[in-house]
Design a protein that fits this description.
InterPro entries: DUF1697 (IPR012545). The chain is of the alpha+beta class. It is 37% helix and 25% strand. It has two domains: 76 residues, SP0830-like domains (Alpha-Beta Plaits, 2-Layer Sandwich); 97 residues, Alpha-Beta Plaits. The chain has six helices and eight strands, in the order E-H-E-E-H-E-H-E-H-E-E-H-E-H. The chain has a four-stranded antiparallel β-sheet. The protein has a four-stranded antiparallel β-sheet with strand order 6-7-5-8. Helix 3 packs antiparallel against helix 6 and helix 4 crosses helix 5.
């Protein structure tokens, strides 16, 4: 069995209210093992046979729509990928941990789309952005809450969805997955 984490977008924000107990129960009904939630923002740890994560992402999107009438995206990563989201983030240890994020994407970003994102954001704020495997690394410098570098801004330019977590949360999740 492989240990995974599903990072759900837009859970318990913007009207998408869901208890973690209900989310755990939905995973258990789908026969995932050792299901555990971490904080209330839709991080679900579980064990399952090793397989490509994009199939799991599709399954969870369908499960959320069917069981909770929520249209959402889930980025699924294994323990090594979660650890890498902290360790490979070039801003970890430089910026403040609660301002440094990894934005998990549904697929690898296209280099030209990433270049367009960087160019379109130039002069809009102090944020720093780097590309990683199926993710972006972002240092929000002054905080994500006041930034013009929003998920919607990023998603429009990259043409794919994503969900972000700060490296403090990711380190906590990685430790629980170990």
């Amino acid at each position: 069995m492989t240990r995974y984490c599903a990072f759900f977008a837009s859970i318990n924000v913007g009207g998408n209210r869901l208890t973690m107990a209900d989310l755990r129960y939905a995973f258990e009904r789908e026969e995932f093992e050792n299901v555990e939630t971490v904080v209330t923002s839709g991080n679900v740890l579980f064990d399952f046979d090793e397989r490509p994560t994009d199939g799991l992402e599709d399954l969870f999107a369908h499960m959320m729509l069917d069981r909770f009438d929520m249209s959402t995206f889930a980025a699924v990563r294994n323990a090594g990928e979660v650890r890498s989201a902290v360790e490979d983030n070039p801003f970890t240890g430089i910026g403040q941990d609660h301002y440094v994020h990894t934005l998990f994407l549904e697929r690898d970003a296209d280099q030209s789309a990433f270049d367009k994102l960087v160019a379109n954001h130039a002069g809009r704020g102090p944020e720093k952005i780097a590309m990683g495997p199926r993710c972006l690394y972002i240092d929000y410098v002054d905080g994500a809450g006041h930034s013009k570098l929003t998920n919607a801004f990023i998603e429009r330019r990259l043409g794919c969805r994503g969900t972000a977590r700060n490296v403090r949360s990711l380190a906590r999740i990685a430790a629980k997955m170990a």
